[in-house]
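Let us practice reading a record.
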Amino acid sequence: MLNQYTVHKKGLLPMLCCLASAAMLQLPAAHADAAEGQALFGAEKCAACHQMTGPSDPLPVTQRGAIKGPPLWFAGSKFQPGWLAQWLQDPKPIRRVKYATLTKGSNDHVKLPAAEAASVAAYLEGLTDAEMATSVVPNKKLSRRKSMNATKLFTKKQVCFGCHEYPSRRGPIGGFAGPSLVWAGARLNADWIYAYIQDPVRYYPNGRMPVYGDLAFDPFTDAEFKSLAQLIKGF
């Protein structure tokens, strides 16, 4: 039986993605109202788990275990349009450990009907980082040479897969301390990936992401940051 990785290996994935996108366009869109979504977000007490203002300073290490979900004050900059509306209807874990811990498992998340999911997503997609540059990462595939260099950065120079699962010809491989990057392109905005890998503390001050260019890590050039963002966007 074909899975998503064998399909990718056989070169059929782009065709299937196009067919799936076309099918989705033919479906009736759920009613989306950002104001209604904000009200639902408050009624569900979502801010008890998600930070809605930022940037913020890091919490003391002893308090980080109380964090239950990622910050969302920049959700519209981070996520691809439409992804949140789909995910909120059927929330599947993106990491194999509970948030802010290395304990295997996942945090439960409320499941919303299609109309409510669309409205909450509309509200969240309106929350953006005003200081994040846009239209920075080229909206095209990397050349073969640049793809090989970016892959070396990801797998050898910084060993990103030690914490992040990513797709390979043999199936998903990698660690689980960070979120999975399988199908990252469907979830994440390339410009946000670029901004995040340059300044992870701005978005996740309590995370474990290395700060590239500090004394402990090799600095990246701007071209390398962009190539790495394009590579991840292509997962």
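A brief commentary: The chain has two domains: 34-125, 144-233.
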